[in-house]
């Protein structure tokens, strides 16, 4: 199961909001954060892989914590503005990376295959 808190969040402009996400799924080590704007469009804000935060370029967000089972990953939205009003989703998944390295200088093959995904949401109004 995946759990996100708080379910609703009310903030004024220029304030900071924090949304927390955790899960209870063995071997899942990645939490992804999405924003669904009022017009219905989705935007990837970034992801936490184990204990490494990876915000998308140009996104005014921070992340802290961890993405493994039982850990809490926090999305931090600073200096809120009207366009911050949205539904925020966290998703978790299993991240698998295989690296085939050869003695000859060939490209490294790095596939990522999700074994499953869980979702939870927070409304920011």
UniProtKB/TrEMBL annotation:
Pfam families: V-set. Gene3D superfamilies: Immunoglobulins (2.60.40.10). One of its GO terms (cellular component) is plasma membrane. Residues 4-95 form the Immunoglobulin V-set domain. Keywords: Immunity, Signal. GO terms for biological process: cell surface receptor signaling pathway; immune system process. This is Immunoglobulin V-set domain-containing protein.
């Amino acid at each position: 199961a995946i759990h996100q808190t708080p379910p609703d969040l009310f903030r004024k402009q220029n304030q900071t909001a924090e949304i927390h996400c955790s899960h209870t799924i063995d071997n899942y080590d990645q939490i992804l954060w999405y924003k669904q704007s009022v017009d219905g469009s989705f935007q990837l804000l970034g992801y936490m892989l184990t204990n490494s935060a990876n915000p998308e370029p140009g996104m005014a967000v921070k992340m802290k914590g961890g993405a493994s089972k039982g850990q809490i990953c926090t999305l931090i939205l600073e200096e809120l503005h009207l366009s911050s009003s949205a539904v925020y989703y966290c998703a978790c998944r299993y991240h698998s990376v295989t690296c085939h390295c050869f003695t000859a200088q060939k490209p490294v093959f790095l596939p990522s295959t999700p074994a499953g995904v869980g979702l939870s949401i927070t409304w920011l109004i």
